[in-house]
Design brief:
The protein is an alpha+beta fold. Helix content is 61%, strand content 8%. The protein has helices spanning 14-24, 30-45, 50-64, 69-72, 77-126, 131-140, 165-178, 201-210, 224-245, 259-264, 267-278, 289-300, 305-312, 316-330, 337-352; strands at residues 148-155, 184-188, 191-197, 215-218, 222-223, 251-253. Helix 11 (267-278) crosses helix 15 (337-352) and helix 13 (305-312) packs across helix 14 (316-330). Residues 291-346 form the PucR C-terminal helix-turn-helix domain.
C-alpha cells in the first residue's frame, strides 16, 4: 500500500523486489532501475511531488523490513548486517532512479514551456498570429493584450539570452516589486525586451534603471496585439537612429525621434538636399567630414561656440575658422537662425544617409 496519497501502482512490485534482494544479496539490475525511473517520470507527469514519492518508498521499506526473508532467516548479527547493506543499497539505487525519472519529466516540461514561450514571443513581436488567438495565448504568460502597452528594448555590448545574469536580476527585482502579471520580459535577437502596460510607468522606469549602463529605447503606447508589434518596431528604430546619428543619450524615446522618419520618408528629396547644401564641403581641405562634425557639435552645444569647441577639442578660434569655411563653401551661415535650420536639417540627413562615407 502506498503512502501520503501516492497510488499503489507507483510502488507496485517494490516490496517483492526487496524480498528477493534480501535473499540473494544482489544489486539492483539495470532494467529494474529503469523501471523505477519510468515510474518517477510518470508520477511527475501526474502531478505527484518527489518528496511524496520518496516518502512512499521509505514507508514501504520500513513496513516490509521485519518480514523480509533475509532478515527473518539471519542467524547472526553479521548475517543481518550483510542483508541490511544489500537492501539499503537497493533502496538507495531505487530512490535515486525515481528521482532521475522525476527530474527528467520536469526538465522536459520546462523545455516545452520555454519553447512555447519563445514561439509566443516571436509571434507577438512579429505579428505572425491571429490577434484573437494571440490574446488568448498571452494570458497563459500573464499578459493581457486588451489595453495599451509599451515595449522597451535594451541593448548592450554583449548579446542577451535567457541565461544572462542581467536578465535574471531584472526578472527577479521586477517580480519582487510589481509581481509578474501583465508584464512580459524576454530576450530577442540578443536584446532584452520588456512589454508593460502603458499605465504602469513605474515598471518601465524600473526596467530602465535596472538595465544599468546599457542603452534602452522605448516605443510609444499602442493598443492590442498589433500595438505591441508597432511599439517594438518603434523601439528598434530608435536604437538604429541612435547609432546612426551618434546620439549620446542612454535612454531613447521614439516619441522624441518622430521627426527623423518624416525626414527620411522621401529619401530622394533628402539626398538632393544634402547634395545641394553640403556637397560643396567636399572641396575643403580634409574633405567634408570634419566640417560636418563641426556642424553637429555646434548644434548639440546649442550654438554656443565655447562649448562646441570643447566638445571638438578645438580652440574657439579654430572653431570660428571652420564655421566661416562652412558659410563660404555652402552659402549658408550657421549663425543665421533661418539658414542654420537648413544646415542642421541637411546635416541630420547626411548622418542618416551615412554621407560622405557613402556616396549619394
Amino acid at each position: 500500500m502506498a503512502a501520503r496519497g501516492i497510488p499503489p501502482e507507483y510502488v507496485d512490485g517494490y516490496e517483492e523486489l526487496l524480498a528477493d534482494i534480501s535473499r540473494s544479496g544482489r544489486a539492483l539490475r539495470r532494467d529494474e532501475r529503469e523501471a523505477r525511473r519510468e515510474l518517477g517520470e510518470r508520477a511527475a507527469d501526474s502531478g505527484y511531488g518527489l518528496r511524496e514519492l520518496v516518502d512512499a518508498y521509505l514507508g514501504a521499506t520500513r513496513r516490509s523490513w521485519s518480514t523480509l526473508p533475509g532478515v527473518a532467516d539471519a542467524r547472526s548479527a553479521a548475517d543481518l548486517r550483510h542483508v541490511g547493506e544489500s537492501v539499503l543499497a537497493a533502496v538507495e539505487a531505487g530512490v535515486a532512479a525515481l528521482a532521475e525519472g522525476h527530474e527528467r519529466s520536469h526538465r522536459l516540461a520546462v523545455r516545452k514551456e520555454e519553447a512555447a514561450r519563445r514561439e509566443f514571443v516571436d509571434d507577438l513581436l512579429y505579428g505572425r498570429s491571429d490577434p484573437g488567438r494571440l490574446a488568448e495565448r498571452a494570458e497563459r504568460f500573464g499578459l493581457r493584450l486588451a489595453g495599451r502597452h509599451v515595449v522597451a528594448v535594451a541593448t548592450g555590448p554583449e548579446a542577451y539570452d535567457d541565461a544572462h545574469p542581467l536578465v535574471h536580476r531584472v526578472e527577479r527585482d521586477l517580480a519582487g516589486r510589481f509581481g509578474d502579471h501583465d508584464v512580459l520580459l524576454a530576450t530577442k535577437g540578443g536584446r532584452f525586451v520588456c512589454i508593460a502596460p502603458a499605465a504602469e510607468q513605474a515598471v518601465l522606469d524600473a526596467f530602465v534603471k535596472l538595465a544599468g549602463e546599457v542603452r534602452v529605447a522605448l516605443g510609444r503606447p499602442h493598443g492590442g496585439p498589433g500595438g505591441v508589434v508597432r511599439s517594438y518596431e518603434e523601439a528598434l528604430s530608435a536604437l538604429d537612429l541612435g547609432e546612426r546619428l551618434g546620439l549620446e543619450a542612454r535612454v531613447l524615446n521614439s516619441a522624441d525621434l518622430l521627426v527623423f522618419p518624416v525626414l527620411m520618408r522621401d529619401r530622394a528629396a533628402m539626398a538632393d538636399l544634402v547634395r545641394a547644401v553640403l556637397g560643396p564641403l567636399e572641396e575643403a581641405r580634409g574633405g567634408a567630414l570634419p566640417l560636418l562634425q563641426t556642424l553637429g557639435a555646434y548644434a548639440a552645444a546649442g550654438y554656443v561656440g565655447a562649448e562646441a569647441a570643447r566638445r571638438l577639442d578645438l580652440s574657439v578660434r579654430a572653431l570660428s575658422y571652420r564655421l566661416e569655411r562652412i558659410a563660404a563653401l555652402t552659402g549658408f551661415d550657421p549663425d543665421d537662425a533661418l539658414q542654420r535650420y537648413t544646415l542642421e536639417t541637411a546635416a541630420l540627413g547626411a548622418r542618416l544617409l551615412d554621407w560622405p562615407q557613402r556616396p549619394l
